[in-house]
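Hi L., both proteins are below.
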Amino acid sequence: MKRPGWLLLWALALAQVVSWGSFYYAFSLFVVPMERELGWSRSDTNGALSLGLLISGFVAYPIGKWIDRRGGRAVMAAGSALGAALLCLWAATSSIAVFYAVWVGLGLVLGATLYEPVFVVVTRSYPHNFRNRITALTLVGGFASTVYIPLTKLFIDQLGWRQALIALALTNLLIALPIHGLLLRDQDHGRRTGGGSTAAAKAIEQDAMRRALRHPVFWILAVSFTAYYATFSALTFHLIPLLTERGISADTIVGAYAVVGPSQVVGRIALLAIPGGFSSSVAGRLAVLALPGSVALLIAFPQSIAMLFAFAAIYGVGNGILTIVRGTVVPDLMWREGYGAINGAMALPSNVAKAAAPFGAALIWTAGGYAIVLWAILAGALIAAATFWLATSWHREPAQDARASSP
């Protein structure tokens, strides 16, 4: 069978732009117009998003197992189709109960269409150079907010928020669904890890998962990514009110935010440009230091505009690199067999923490203000960095020798 080329990779990257843009980044732009028309509170609308993020965390493991055994075509195509249908249902509803039901479904969609499943697909499709392919994919995917935030705003301004949701649904039906439903066809036929039968693939995946649960690196990485994404999520959702509380102007805040996206892309380009590829251990060690370093700038220089922009640049570069490392570190430090199930199991606590952290930060703010919130975020970032360094220092079984066998 002919190995998949770059066409599939770039198509999947385009689908990531559509999925991230329409199912994740667009949400914040609908909050205000929905509140104006429907009279819902900010906690009502954001509670639905948190519920969806929680659901996406819980389905990461079964979706990863599915892709290990059967490939990504069915689950990713179904995610795009279901997502389009749910956006249309969202557009038609005025019921808070239906809105929450929509976000239960969109939680499934997030788990089926974003980076976690596509990393498994890319690792299966390009087993010998998955690092560079994941880097290239996230390089394009990093433009999702750059494309979809202004596009969604244009849709809302010109069409109203309900019709804007229909327009976003159409982008999934016209772009993401054909890519997932058609171009992934070859990847699903006969490509079973270590054998030609579903039973053999299931046995290999189960054995790989059992070994992972006994492997210290699995648990240390799970702690690291849980701490990192809890910290990252809390900072992301509280940065604007934090800076506003400090008296920073809205234009300056928007300008600082505008630095984050390009900085993520710069970090990914730097990895892609390394001759002979990059080491997940080295790249990850540098990336996890960026978050506590950037938070330290916010603490040490609360009124400095220059340091705010330095924070945004360091924060963006680190997250851009770590997104790639998140997709490559498991096969690099452990093994490729059962990657989808292992990655999904590792993602579950970090996705749950990502959903809960903004609420937890709000409770801390209520008790002590944003100064205490920042110190808590710094503590979480340091835990993430220390545990990642520990995981990459652990004596590990080489990926090439860690071959699973049927029991």
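That was the first. Here is the second:
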Amino acid sequence: MTECSIPCVGFDGLAELLAKQPKETRLAYTGSIEVTPHCNLKCAHCYVAPCHWEGNLLSYEELCRIIDEVAEAGCIWLLLTGGEPFLRNDFLDIYAHAKKKGMLVSIFTNGTLVTPEIARYLHDWTPHIIEISVYGATEATYESVTGVPGSYKRCLRGIELLIEQGIQVRLKTMLMTLNQHEYWDMKKLAESYGAPFKFDAVMNPRLDGSLNPYELRLSPEEIVRIEEEDPQYREAWIENYRKFSDLEVSQDLVFTCGAGRGRFHIDAFGRLQLCIITRQPSYNLRQGSFKEGWGKFFPAVLDQRLSKPSSCRSCRNRAICHICPGWTQLECGTSEEQPIEYLCQLSRLRAETFGLERTAVDNK
């Protein structure tokens, strides 16, 4: 008998391999669909704005047709998000349709609408992952963010119902002035559930360009202090710098990341977009197909050139900066990257605090 060894690649390994494909190799392997922009909470920092609500939401039939086309294009990972997806009465039917197409389907939710019936259904049709936003470790802090009395207890109950059904849950938070004092307690809360935990503190403008969320954002010093104290983030930024600081970035293309090359986003009104932040330009899937949008519309968008050189492209801290065309589109009204002082301060402080300039020298 001859031995035959077939190498095995896990989910994370496969994602890394796909992400390393040459830029010219465009594979629609991961994407997100916003099934509704509506939410039952009133979060103070929310970036969703009514400005992009045009026309009727995609119907169940339209969503199923789009999911079919996405699956046919080779999508492996599909995220269903909102707004709050469970506000749709037909959400479980939409979710099941995507599952039956063989994709690894994840859900982003606030958890407050999860019922025993929903949890049992998801046990039978297990999602790849469910990510739930937790905005505080206490009722007072959580609801100072969500603005809805009773939402804290409903959120925790939703988490518990899902975990009882053996569903993999990840918890996350947007860290801001309202809840930063409970960061470590939120992390302990996640540990008590046996759930991974992550935070983001870098708020972008709302989809209408409003800078109101900035009133709640932490200073670069506050963000880096937490990142320095938490080994999970300190090590992650060091590793990120090692991997990407020497990566060559196009000096003339507007879009240089994986958006439109391996990733896509579809909003609740059927508009195909590069990513969840870069909402313009878009392609109307109600009038065309995903195949045409991915195969013809996106390549034309990705071929756009900068009108003038961007200093962001040659910045030594680019690998640890949040700058992207989507961000500058929202804040500056253009997709062409340009320095945003808050992000510059944050990346410079990370480099200094974590000794990343010395890391770059050591790697040479």
